[in-house]
Amino acid sequence: MSRFFSEKYAFLEPYTPGEQPQDRRYIKLNTNESPFPLSSFAAKEAEEASGRMQLYPDPECGELVRTAAAVYGLNENEMLFTNGSDEALNFAFMAYCSDAKPAVFPNITYGFYPVFAEINSVPYVEIPLREDFTIRIEDYFRTGKTVFLANPNAPTGIALKRGEIEEILKQNRDSVIVIDEAYVDFGAESCIPLIHGYENLLVVQTFSKSRSMAGARLGFAAGNPSLIEDLRTIKYSTNPYNINRFTMAAGIGVLKDEEYTARNCAAIREIRSYTADELKKLGFIMTDSLSNFLFVRHPHISGEKLYLRLKEKGILIRHFSKEEIREYNRITIGRKEDMEILTKAIREILEENV
């Protein structure tokens, strides 16, 4: 880094995204993207938007908000769209965390949380998970801090029930509780229905996973109108035109094609179950994932070795170096034929390892 780089960021450890190698064609099971393309209806909507690219997009995202509010059963002033859910999460760190109100989240969770805390100069506390990687909800009672929980959690895929999160809300009336629902559409319970009962609840979702829009960058925050107004203040102080025309049009289109999304989510759940059964036959141990990925380990081969050997065979999965989970790998659920190739390759690796 240069000698001009601000000293306040000198010790910042940036988030490491999943690798995107270009040296060969891989089966990509490492970044939790959807194996299904964008809805053809949504793609057509985005294409039509290209004729107006000389104009700024609507900073209010009016049509997108109206369409989404109808889908999610919300009022229009209870939603704010952002450039991916990461922007919404960053806004929450900016708006609700300070020296007087630190952040708190699990020690094994989405790796961006500590980065958001550090770049915003926010103190934070990481609470260990249980040995089985589950969250003990009592650890988040009366914290006096802003709580960030991914539900289902990443990279474990384990989800809290809505009632458990409601108990955390009740126990923290004077703190904002941010529920990151990036993977909720694959089997967990959304907390969006709780928004009208708890002024301290902020729910964040993304269109990257279940709606096949990872390349478009679209997310949103949902909550009490006063919370949304807080985030609007941050947005209009940083980047009012944060959603481009293509993304906005595609978002509207995909929301109008809910049947396509539901069908894809059902297919991923079915393929997840199939893959879990096949890996268990090979001796794998795994968490009870309600996400579009599995979190697995094998007693006879290290997580790193399995990751490297699969990469040699043209298959990418996600390996983490953190001590508590370094024997595990996260495997995105792809098309069934991708998972069949994966399990065949793993069987060969395990036979070599005997």
Q: Main beta sheet: strand number and arrangement?
A: 7 strands, mixed
**SS-based structural class?**
alpha/beta
Helical stretch count? 10
Broad shape: globular
- Tell me the fraction of residues in β-strands, as a range: 5-15%
Overall tally of structural domains = 2
Helix coverage percent: 25-40%
- The CATH homologous superfamily of the largest domain is termed Type I PLP-dependent aspartate aminotransferase-like (Major domain)
Ranges where pLDDT stays below 50 over 5 or more residues in a row are: none
Please name the CATH topology of the largest domain.
Answer: Aspartate Aminotransferase, domain 2
Structural commentary:
With 354 residues, the protein is of the alpha/beta class. The protein folds into 2 domains: 16-37 and 259-353, Aspartate Aminotransferase, domain 1 (Alpha-Beta Complex); 40-256, 3-Layer(aba) Sandwich (Aspartate Aminotransferase, domain 2), CATH 3.40.640. Helices cover 35% and strands 14% of the residues. It is built from 10 helices and 13 strands. It has helices at 40-49, 62-72, 84-96, 112-119, 162-170, 225-235, 245-255, 258-281, 303-312, 336-353; strands at 27-28, 79-82, 103-106, 124-127, 146-150, 177-180, 201-206, 219-223, 285-286, 293-297, 315-316, 318-319, 329-332. The strands form 3 sheets. The chain has a 7-stranded mixed beta sheet with strand order 2-8-7-6-5-3-4, sandwiched between helices. Strands 9-10-13-12 form a 4-stranded antiparallel beta sheet, covered by helices on one side. α4 (112-119) links the parallel β3 (103-106) and β4 (124-127). α2 packs parallel to α7 (245-255) and α8 packs parallel to α10 (336-353). The radius of gyration is 21 Å and the shape is globular.
